[in-house]
Fold this sequence. Notes:
With 155 residues, the protein is α/β, with parallel strands linked by helices. The protein has four helices and five strands.
Amino acid sequence: xxxxxxxxxxxxxxxxxxxxxxxxxxxxxxxxxxxxxxxxxxxxxxxxxxxxxxxxxxxxxxxxxxxxxxxxxxxxxxxxxxxxxxxxxxxxxxxxxxxxxxxxxxxxxxxxxxxxxxxxxxxxxxxxxxxxxxxxxxxxxxxxxxxxxxxxxxx
Length: 155
């Protein structure tokens, strides 16, 4: 992508999240990523610049750039390659953009994706689920296969 690419032109959503914002996870590098459940209302405040939506069907339209990652509820991503690409892009963009990760409830798939992003940020894979549960939601990453997916995810 080039500087003239409209996907990278700073707009009203330029900048990062406030660390104490709802659902915001601070990674060890200082990057901030927001997790949320799409079944709940959009939190007040600034809008994301980029979102990764983890759903079994296409997400609702949003006015910011988005990536739909096919990921059925209580399951794993349909494509591991697409998941790695989407989460790597989310991690990269979180350095200077407001990035959100969301599924229906905001815990299982979102927590799993946040744990994988934490691995990309340097958290050991075997500690990433605990990191997300401590710093995002105590019930994040809901199934044994989601926990195993994170343990096998490499940075």
